[in-house]
Amino acid sequence: MEKGINSYILRKFCIEPKDIRSYSPLTLAYIGDSVYDLIIRSMVVGEGNARVNELNRRASEIVKAHAQSEMVGRLMSHLTEEELSVYKRGRNAKSATVAKNATVGDYRRATGLEALIGYLYLQDQTERIMELVTMGLSGMGKGEKHEVRGADD
């Protein structure tokens, strides 16, 4: 199996990988939020040069808690048992903060999605992350034109 960017980073900084099953769901969501944000920013920038405030506006529409919550609804039937368990741990985690302009339900579902993405990222399952993000975005009018290709493409 080809290693992902997480393994590369850990290797470069001489950090021994940890058992991610011991990580709290909020730790998983912490890294998952950044991974998801990077995917969306990469898509937005890849669509062409634009003013930064326009890039930020486009990305913000996709990364906000409400949009992530909607994605979760489209993904639930596609998750494995293990993925569903990680998602639920993230969704049920007690966070000290709630995103502004988001309902508690949307925020918790978004946290669950971010925990799942973080979990998959730490396992170097980049292809699975991209598969899920593409499925989730397809219902938003995004993702249909963004085909995910295999690692050897």
Q: What is the SS-derived class? A: mainly alpha
Number of strands: 0
Order of helices and strands: HHHHHHH
Instruction: Just name the CATH architecture.
Output: Orthogonal Bundle
Number of helices: 7
How widely separated are the two ends? 16 Å
How would you characterize the overall build of this protein?
By secondary structure, this protein is mostly helical. It has one domain: Ribonuclease III domain (Ribonuclease iii, N-terminal Endonuclease Domain, Chain A), CATH 1.10.1520.10. It contains 7 helices and no strands. The chain has helices at residues 5-12, 25-46, 52-63, 65-75, 81-92, 104-122, 126-138. Helix 2 packs across helix 5, helix 2 crosses helix 6 (104-122) and helix 4 packs across helix 7. The longest helix has 22 residues, at 25-46. It is globular. Mean pLDDT is 89; it is low at 144-149.
Describe, in short, the structure shown.
The protein has 153 residues and is mainly alpha-helical. The protein has one domain (18-138): Orthogonal Bundle (Ribonuclease iii, N-terminal Endonuclease Domain, Chain A), CATH 1.10.1520.10.
Q: What features would you highlight for this structure?
A:
single chain, 153 residues, mainly alpha, Ribonuclease iii, N-terminal Endonuclease Domain, Chain A, 7 helices
SSE topology:
Layout: H1 5-12, H2 25-46, H3 52-63, H4 65-75, H5 81-92, H6 104-122, H7 126-138
